[in-house]
Specification:
about 30% helix, 3 helices, 8 strands, globular, Rossmann fold, alpha/beta, about 150 residues
Amino acid sequence: MELWFYHLERTPLDQVLPGLLEKSLARNWRVLISSPDSERIKWLDEWLWTWREDSFLPHGTADTPRAHLQPVLLSTGAHNENDAKISILLDGADPDKFEGYERIILMFDGADEAAVQQARELWKRSKAKGQTVLYWKQNESGVWKNMA
């Protein structure tokens, strides 16, 4: 399993996440987005339907019928109900609880010092375990670069 860290400094989550989802869906990858914050899940559910007029991001929440059929599933848990290859973790979700994914993307707000510190500790712990870890950060032009 690969663990990718996305350090959100220049662009907020609501602008970064849809692009990642579009790329994943273009590759026919299913995605689980998880946050321990149920309000965040509700907000994302609404946002992904309306984020851009010329785009459609098919998704659903784990508490709706036929959740297992959703290409993008929003959840407060780690259960891989939609057979996702990728899990995107928000709001401090613990990646140690997410097994069976090819890639876990941990997104954290660079303006939140506690989130940055948590990501640093997780990075060190993951490297010590020999996991493949990548650190993504935007440059001045807004292009995401792998920095480590």
